[in-house]
Amino acid sequence: MDDRLPHEKGFHVSWDQIHRDSRALAWRLDGQGPDDGNWRAIVAITRGGMAPAMIIARELDIRVIDTISVKSYNHQDQVEAKVLKAPDAGLMGDGTGILVIDDLVDSGKTLELVRKLYPKAHFATVYAKPKGRPQVDSYITEVSQDTWIFFPWDMALQYVQPYRGKD
Ligand SMILES: O=P(O)(O)OC[C@H]1O[C@H](OP(=O)(O)OP(=O)(O)O)[C@H](O)[C@@H]1O
Ligand code: HPA
Ligand SMILES: [Mg+2]
Known about the structure:
Elements: E1 9-12, H1 15-29, E2 41-46, H2 50-60, E3 65-74, E4 77-85, H3 89-92, E5 98-105, H4 109-117, E6 122-128, E7 138-142, E8 147-150
Parallel strand pairs: 1-8, 2-3, 2-5, 5-6, 6-7
Antiparallel strand pairs: 3-4
Helix pairs in contact: 1-2
The structure holds 1-O-pyrophosphono-5-O-phosphono-alpha-D-ribofuranose (PRP), hypoxanthine (HPA) and magnesium ion.
């Protein structure tokens, strides 16, 4: 399989980059919660939201963290978004004071589903593509719709031939 198709461009994110961008998102969210600027809890959309959620929780000193498991893709093929595991209902209520974190918004289908469940929550992603932007309240970096974002947990360092390598 060509690992870029059907997307034209690849945006490769290192651990260092996701750490910096997640911190930038935490900075943007700091003091924006409804209770004296505070947020009640973080909910990470698994699995991709867990890494940024951990970094943001550390920066904002939030200790209550739950997860919602949503599956929307089989590798790069989009399937119907489905909730596989919901967060604690008592914690969530209508979502007021809850920060819902994901690594990116692409078509917006995942956030649309979660937003229906918790309409008062604040939805934040590190990266956003134009189609999904209406679904996200805060994000850091936008990439074009035809870009596939490669995260460090899906990659490994490997040798590459020099430009003037032997064929
Ligand atoms: O805006 P959308 O088009 O819905 O796409 C965005 C979602 O797709 C990816 O998750 P995926 O379902 O691949 O699961 P994963 O996080 O477990 O890798 C990504 O982490 C987002 O959650
Ligand atoms: O661009 C992407 N990268 C990784 N996972 C994704 N899930 C939807 N879009 C993407
Ligand atoms: Mg995901």
